[in-house]
Design brief:
Length: 310
């Protein structure tokens, strides 16, 4: 078996942090391996348009998966929330690493008062590029102004500090990993804004038949995180949605019991369907699929169909 591995990564500071973290963990778990990182540009990195315009499914992953299939790289490191729920033939998720804080974070501009979303002043300009966050924020605070926001984490925070926004909603995990924990004004409770599917988790994707890469990366898998995220991804898969749609899910495991919350919404927050289910953690994918079917029975299917054709 080869002891040389090439990691494919996007070029943003956060993506490279994640790739370097996986490289270090792999070297600790597999002494004697030689591991390199190759930067690959994706559609989501190149096009400045909103994700809802360029399409959420695979926009940050397609080129990495092509490099895997072409054997230019041996493994791809993804933010799991960017990875479509259907993996291309010949590829596999070989590890889902231990999750960082999955919640969203409220980041305030200096001088802006308020310790939570509920305490923001009416008329505050809040930046987000996420349809999921937009829908839930409009439902919670219809009196704030939501303004689109693109760019990497550093760019977004810079725009905030320049005064283009009063507040941002970003993933807590990304801020923590980039050493920006102090910029988190408040963690957003999951009953205010439910996180994205897989948020906070790093996934490693390999060729399914590459025994060396699969064997090396399997060692980094964190079983509780994997079970929780597989439940969330089964929920999303059951709804047929992607990150361009206002779909959210969050699973937690306690004493081998998995509890899953999920929702589907209209982008303006005027309609939100929520559901929850629980069961044996090992049956998480079934729990996720069943919750999706239940919400479809309650009208989620027609709601999503309207978004796709609207």
């Amino acid at each position: 078996m080869s002891s040389r591995l090439v990691i494919g990564s996007r070029g943003s500071r956060l993506a490279l942090w994640q790739a370097e973290k996986i490289k270090d963990d792999l070297l600790r778990a597999n002494p004697g391996f030689e591991i390199h990182i190759e930067i690959i540009k994706t559609t989501g990195d190149v096009k400045p348009d909103p994700l809802s315009v360029i399409g959420g499914k695979g926009v940050f992953t397609k080129e990495l998966e092509e490099a895997l299939l072409d054997k230019r790289i041996d493994l791809a490191v993804h933010s799991l929330k960017d990875l479509p729920t259907v993996v291309p033939d010949g590829l596999a998720i070989s590890a889902i690493c231990e999750r960082e804080d999955p919640r969203d974070a409220l980041v305030l501009r200096n001088g802006v008062r308020g310790g939570s979303l509920r305490e923001l002043a009416a008329g505050s300009v809040v930046g987000t590029s996420s349809q999921r966050r937009l829908a839930q924020l409009k439902a919670l605070r219809p009196d704030v102004v939501v303004k689109d926001l693109r760019g990497n984490v550093d760019t977004r925070v810079r725009k905030l500090d320049e005064g283009q926004y009063d507040a941002l909603i970003l993933a807590s995990a990304g801020l923590i990993r980039l050493g920006l924990r102090e910029r988190i004004s408040a963690a957003v409770a999951t009953d205010e804004i439910l996180p994205a599917v897989g948020q906070g988790a790093i996934a490693i994707e390999t060729r399914a038949g590459d025994e060396a890469a699969v064997g090396a990366t399997n060692k980094l898998n964190h079983r509780p995180t994997e079970l929780a995220c597989r439940a969330e991804r089964a929920f999303l898969r059951g709804l047929g949605g992607g990150c361009q749609f206002p779909i959210a899910a969050h699973a937690v495991i306690e004493d081998d019991v998995l509890s899953l919350q999920g929702l589907v919404a209209r982008p303006d927050g005027s309609e939100i369907l929520r559901g929850a289910s629980s069961g044996v953690a090992e049956h998480g994918e079934g729990i996720g699929a069943a919750l999706a079917a239940r919400l479809i029975d309650q009208g989620a299917g027609s709601l999503l169909s309207g978004l796709q054709h609207g």
